[in-house]
Amino acid sequence: QVQLVESGGGLVQAGGSLRLSCAASGRTFSRYPMGWFRQAPGKEREFVGIIGWSGDAGYADSVKGRFTISRDNAKNTVYLQMNSLKPEDTAVYYCVADPPGPRIWGQGTQVTVSS
User: Fold this and answer.
1) Rounded to whole angstroms, how far apart are CA atoms 40 and 55?
2) What is the mean pLDDT of the chain?
3) Strand locations in the chain, DSSP E?
4) Who's near 56: CB < 8 A, 6+ residues apart?
5) CA triplet 114, 78, 30: central angle to 5 degrees?
6) Of 36, 43, 67, 109, which sees the most CB atoms within 10 A?
């Protein structure tokens, strides 16, 4: 069974940092893009960033310069380092994987940034 499990969410003050992890199981994703989306209360799910198998990453303008995606292919894990957090970053963060076929989603982890 293919599964993505996020961890590392929590409550942090504005200006603080959090690191999210996403561990994949059930198959190897080292050859495929993986990334992150988020959904704030009352808003649509939005793209945060994505990283290719070689490590090239792209980000939404809203997080560029503050968030960094990395991956450890040996561990089948992708990370999201979030710095200089703002209250508007409060959301459920979802890990995704893009093998051939349907996109695979994790169950999400809550990030809350207090002002």
Assistant:
1) 27
2) 95
3) 3-7, 10-13, 18-25, 34-39, 46-51, 57-59, 67-72, 77-82, 91-97, 104-105, 109-114
4) none
5) 165
6) 36
Q: Which residue type is seen at 90? A: T
Instruction: Tell me: pLDDT of 1 over 90.
Output: no
SS3 89: helix
Backbone Cα Rg of the chain: 13
Query: Over the range 32-50, which residues count as b (16 or more CB within 10 Å of their CB) and which as e?
Result: ebbbbbbeeeeeeeeebbb
Q: Which two tokens stand for residue 115?
A: 């002002």
Per DSSP bridges, beta strands 34-39 and 46-51 are antiparallel
Residue 12: CA count within 13 A, CB half-sphere: 22
Tokens of 65: 């310069």
Residue-wise pLDDT for 11-21, tens only, equals 999 999 999 99
With contact defined as beta carbons under 8 Å apart, do 93 and 111 qualify? yes
